[in-house]
Amino acid sequence: MQRLWLKQVKAFSASLKRTAAETIITGLMPKPKEVIPMQLVISDEKTKELLTEILVEMIQQKREVFQEIFVEALEEVGLANAITEGRKNEFVGEDKILK
User: Fold this and answer.
1) Contact 41/55 with Cβ under 8 angstroms?
2) Among residues 41, 43, 48, 79, which one has the fewest Cβ atoms lying within 10 Å of its Cβ?
3) For every residue of the chain, which 3-state class applies, written as one string?
4) Average confidence (pLDDT) over 8-35
5) Which has more confidence, 98 or 66?
6) Any residues with CB less than 8 A from the CB of 23 and at least 6 apart, and which?
7) Core vs surface per residue 67-90: b (16+ CB within 10 A) or e
8) What pTM does this model have?
9) What pLDDT was estimated at residue 52?
């Protein structure tokens, strides 16, 4: 009985000396059946705060890129307004334009 106990103690101490990967490979430690993903819950207020911080930092770091984007957006709005205004008036013939 004492020999059996001694063998078990030696086997246990030997398994403690191995790394987790070795014990999984040798089959002394069972493989995990399922990995449970962790979820992070962030409030709407915290999300808004984080997004604002990110946008401000991006604008500060990539100022030229955002300036180009805003200029193009303003030009598009101006063009759309001009098209809308032009539709309100009468159409002008090609001959008047080419004079």
Assistant:
1) no
2) 41
3) CHHHHHHHHHHHHHHHHCCHHHHHHHCCCCCCCCCCCCCCCCCHHHHHHHHHHHHHHHHHHCHHHHHHHHHHHHHHHHHHHHHHHHHHCCCCCHHHHCC
4) 62
5) 66
6) 15, 29
7) eeeeeeeeeeeeeeeeeeeeeeee
8) 0.36
9) 92
**Per-domain residue ranges of the chain:** 1-33, 44-97
CB 48 within 8 A of CB 55: no
As a whole number, the mean pLDDT across the chain is 76
pLDDT tens across 44-82, in order?
999 999 999 988 888 888 888 888 888 999 999 988 888
> At 47, which amino acid appears?
T
Please check whether residue 64 is in contact with residue 57, taking contact to mean a CB–CB distance below 8 angstroms: no
Contact 15, 28 (CB under 8 A): yes
- Written as six digits, the tokens of 23 are 């014990």
